[in-house]
């Protein structure tokens, strides 16, 4: 009966009416109940409210209902998801005696004075887009929740009030200077749709989300945030507001709101307090209506330094050796969302000083770095990666950062710049470090140019960290054991995973850490590149010269309890997890990154968590 609503389950079990329950439980007698029913017929009040007015205690009423209906009673300290009640007025919540608490899949826990009010339950299921699971609450408990939400709304409103000093959602238009901005109406005084979109953006900003997905389903609009690399359901919107929300986002992005049958792209800039955030928006017509994806660029705490990326000491030394070349080309590879740009920013912070001229061309500029001349790609103004890079070469640069190698023209200019005495940093979409050669060949770069100018290829992924609050020992499934060659002997490594808690929003993970491999271009590698050797030959040569692989880095994090085994298998490229067939593979991994002799390893069972 997983998909059967609470109201239907009550009907199946032929539940008693509220008055009958109270009489059978001994909280009221039949005479008082009859008087209350007569008063209800004439006044139209809710029976529970009448009985409370006639002397029945709130706590007694709640306990009786919970006992008879096999429901839980509201915990006074219970937390709630503010997004669930965002579209419901305080007057509605108090009048109906309800307050949405949390969502678990399709189930929505709702505090209710009267869990037998099936009409209100039906309305809530329609408005919230899920099946209501009542939690018995007293009227004063509902009022406390509404008052608490009101205080939080006031705090949010205060933050959204002043563009100069608060965290307001302020739209920065292309023809405006930041100093001349006209602030949007205060969120709570704005039209409901503007308020809804502003609060959606604010919630994404507050939770460090990188993307917002607004998806039209058959009977609801689902809003999901991408947090720590994975999408999470946040809330559902009423069916009738989908078109208005999409239209508001289109207006912000400069899209044509009359076009609904073809995809559109657009963008906007907003300011949350002192932080500027670029919004990249994309609409897509689907079966039930338009879907909108909003990417938030710059919604982080600022540019990092290398020591904050999670590079293990061995890998960091390899990377710094390549990075500190006076000239050459260093490329960071990986899929979208792997943290490549963050690594480049950290690299600029590492090499920048007052004696060098550092210039970047980016799409977009995600973080502002003091002392670095940053150029924003603007196709409408004729500033592309290629044209921007040509102009940069006339600015006497020492170090150049190109946000991404997307085409042959940009790649050729970047390689020529690295040959003429510049240090060039860029990113490329490739599966791993060695696959970067294949990708560059596909773009049309000649082998001699690669061999003469490339100094290093770096590949990376991001894996989620185990939540330190709820991380516990984990029993691996059969497939994961087979991949990791786990044996059952004494002293085998302990595997950990977060079990889920409020601190990590029940995901078991909190934050992410980088997993890296650094391929240094040596004379032997250059010879193989000129001969267009297969990837496996280049990889074998690189490993002989000391290269460590991403899967080795990731396995070390698993053995140390920093992440979960299945998280690594989810994140790493298929087929790149090497079989650990030889005995003692775990000791070898630990020795490799702990930089100790294998004989000096401590017992794995006592590894710090």
Descriptive terms for the model:
609 residues, GMP Synthetase, Chain A, domain 3, 3 domains, seven-stranded antiparallel β-sheet, seven-stranded mixed β-sheet, 19 strands, 37% helix
> Distance between the terminal alpha carbons, to the nearest Å?
41 Å
Protein structure class: alpha/beta
Q: Taking Cα atoms only, what radius of gyration do you get, to the nearest Å?
A: 30 Å
Number of helices: 22
Strand portion: 15-25%
Query: What is the CATH topology of the largest domain?
Result: Rossmann fold
Number of domains: 3
Largest sheet, spatial ordering of strands: 4-8-9-10-5-6-7
Q: Report the count of strand segments.
A: 19
Helix content: 25-40%
Mean of residue pLDDT values = 78
The biggest sheet amounts to: 7 strands, antiparallel
* Sequence stretches where pLDDT stays below 50 over 5 or more residues: 155-168, 174-190, 577-581, 596-609
